[in-house]
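Dear H.,

Thanks for agreeing to be a second pair of eyes. The structure we're designing against is below in C-alpha cell form, covering all 448 positions.
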C-alpha cells in the first residue's frame, strides 16, 4: 500500500491529522484548502509538522530504504533462535511487572498518573510520522479482552440515549431493507444489472443491521448488569477527565473529529525510559544529517494493537506485544540513504552492546527499538523461561549468534511458541485485570 502513495501525498494525508494537534493551531474552513491543496506551498503557509515531514522525504539523489546497499550489523539481525528477540522483551515485561493498557481508558489512567509521557508530534530532533494512523472517530470503548468486543463508553444519561439511537437506526434500516426487497421482487429476471445493484445494497444494509443488533446486545449485556454498568461509567469518566485537560488542551467527546485527535494524542506517549533512548538517537541523527528522525509507532493499547494487526502483519499478536508496554518505538528508514541508515544502526548497535536496548532492522522499512527499564538486559533465567526452556537446568546456554537476515515480527510470532510461561503470563494478565477492577471499584466508592 505504501508504494502506491507519493511522499508528498502521504505527508498531506498524515498532516491533516497531525497539524490539528500542534499547540495553538486549529484548522479552519478555507484555510484547510490553502494549506493542503498545493505541493509547492511556501514555508510560511505550511505547518511545522509538514516542514519536518518534507525533510524526511526530501529527494537525496540516491537510493534509499531497502533499495540502498547497507551492511546490517549483527546487533540488528535476528538471533539464530528467532524466538529469542521477542522472548527478551517478554522477559523484561515479567521482570519489572510492567503494566500494559488493554484499552484507551486504561491508557488514560496511566497518562494521568504520570506513568506515560507525551512525545511531541514535531520536536527539535524528531517527527511523529503516522503515529495513530488507524485511530478512528468512533466513541471510546471498553475493550473486552475475552471476546474481543468493544463496548461504547458512555455516561449514565448517554446510555439511554445510545439505546434509543441504536433502536431508531435499526428501525430505519428495517424499513429500507423491506423497500429494497419489494423493489427487487418487482424487477424482471432479465434486468440483471438492476437486480445485481439492488442485491448489493441489500447485502450492505443487512450487514449494517446485523452490526446494530450486536451493538444493542452488548449494550444490554453491560448496561443491564449493575457492576458492569458502573465500570463503563467509571471508564467514561476517566476518558472525560483526560479530554477536559490534556496539557492545557480540551477535547469535546461529542465531536467525532475531536475524539480522533484525542486518540492520536494518547497514542503519542512512551514510558520515560524509552523516550530517553529515542531522544538520544534522534539528537545524533539530526546533528549528523540535519533531518528530524521519523518515528512511526509508540504506545499501543491491546485494543489498538488488535485493530492494527488486521492490516499490518508486522503488528505482534502475542499476549503482551512490546508496543503495549510503552517501552518500544519504531524508526522509519524508507527515505534514509545508506549513510543515514548506517549512522542510525551504529547508534542502535552501540546501545544494544551496552545492554540498554533490543533492536531489529525489519524488512518493512522500520527499526524496532525496545528500551530496558533500568538500562540493562533481563536476567537469563527469565529469557529462557520465555523461550519455554527449563529454568532449573544447570547448563548455561550459549549466547545465540544473530541469523543471516532480519525477519518481520510476523515470522517471529509464528516461531515464538511460549509454552509454560504462557500460563504464567496468562495468570499475570488475569491478576492485572482483577487489580484494575478493584481500583475502579475503589475509585467509584471514593467518588460517592
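And this is the sequence the design step returned. I haven't edited it by hand at all.
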Amino acid at each position: 500500500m505504501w508504494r502506491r502513495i507519493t511522499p508528498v501525498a502521504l505527508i498531506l494525508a498524515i498532516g491533516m491529522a497531525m497539524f490539528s494537534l500542534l499547540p495553538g493551531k486549529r484548522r479552519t474552513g478555507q484555510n484547510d484548502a490553502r494549506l493542503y491543496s498545493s505541493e509547492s506551498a511556501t514555508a510560511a503557509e505550511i505547518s511545522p509538522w509538514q516542514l519536518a515531514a518534507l525533510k524526511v522525504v526530501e529527494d537525496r539523489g540516491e537510493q534509499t530504504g531497502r533499495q540502498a546497499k547497507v551492511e546490517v550489523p549483527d546487533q540488528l539481525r535476528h538471533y539464530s533462535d528467532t524466538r529469542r528477540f521477542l522472548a527478551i522483551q517478554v522477559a523484561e515485561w515479567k521482570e519489572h511487572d510492567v503494566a500494559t493498557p488493554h484499552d484507551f481508558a486504561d491508557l488514560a489512567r496511566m497518562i494521568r498518573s504520570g506513568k506515560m509521557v507525551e512525545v511531541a508530534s514535531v520536536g527539535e530532533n524528531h517527527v511523529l510520522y503516522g503515529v495513530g494512523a488507524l485511530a478512528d472517530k468512533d466513541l471510546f470503548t471498553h475493550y473486552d479482552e475475552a471476546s474481543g468486543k468493544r463496548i461504547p463508553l458512555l455516561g449514565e444519561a448517554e446510555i439511554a440515549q445510545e439505546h434509543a439511537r441504536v433502536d431508531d437506526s435499526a428501525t430505519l434500516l428495517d424499513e429500507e431493507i423491506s423497500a429494497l426487497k419489494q423493489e427487487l421482487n418487482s424487477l424482471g429476471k432479465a434486468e440483471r444489472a438492476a437486480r445485481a445493484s439492488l442485491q448489493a445494497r441489500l447485502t450492505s444494509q443487512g450487514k449494517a443491521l446485523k452490526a446494530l443488533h450486536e451493538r444493542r446486545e452488548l449494550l444490554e449485556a453491560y448496561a443491564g448488569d449493575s457492576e458492569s454498568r458502573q465500570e463503563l461509567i467509571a471508564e467514561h469518566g476517566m476518558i472525560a477527565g483526560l479530554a477536559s485537560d490534556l496539557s492545557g488542551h480540551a477535547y469535546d467527546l461529542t465531536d467525532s473529529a475531536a475524539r480522533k485527535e484525542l486518540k492520536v494524542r494518547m497514542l503519542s506517549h512512551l514510558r520515560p525510559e524509552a523516550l530517553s533512548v529515542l531522544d538520544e538517537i534522534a539528537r545524533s541523527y539530526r546533528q549528523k544529517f540535519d533531518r528530524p528522525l521519523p518515528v512511526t509507532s509508540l504506545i499501543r493499547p491491546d485494543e489498538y494493537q488488535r485493530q492494527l494487526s488486521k492490516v499490518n502483519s508486522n503488528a505482534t499478536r502475542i499476549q503482551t506485544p512490546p508496543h503495549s508496554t510503552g517501552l518500544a518505538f519504531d524508526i522509519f528508514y524508507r527515505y534514509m540513504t545508506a549513510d543515514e541508515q548506517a549512522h542510525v544502526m551504529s547508534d542502535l548497535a552501540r546501545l544494544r552492546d551496552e545492554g540498554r536496548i533490543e533492536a531489529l532492522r525489519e524488512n518493512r522499512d522500520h527499526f524496532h527499538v525496545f528500551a530496558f527499564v533500568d538500562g540493562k538486559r533481563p536476567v537469563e533465567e527469565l529469557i529462557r523461561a520465555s523461550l519455554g526452556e527449563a529454568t532449573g537446568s544447570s547448563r548455561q546456554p550459549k549466547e545465540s549468534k544473530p541469523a543471516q537476515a532480519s525477519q518481520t515480527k510476523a515470522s517471529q510470532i509464528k516461531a515464538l511458541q511460549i509454552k509454560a510461561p504462557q500460563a504464567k503470563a496468562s495468570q499475570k494478565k488475569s491478576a492485572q485485570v482483577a487489580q484494575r477492577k478493584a481500583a475502579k471499584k475503589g475509585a467509584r466508592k471514593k467518588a460517592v
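Two observations from my side: The longest strand covers residues 366-371. The two ends are 51 Å apart (CA to CA).

Warmly,
E.
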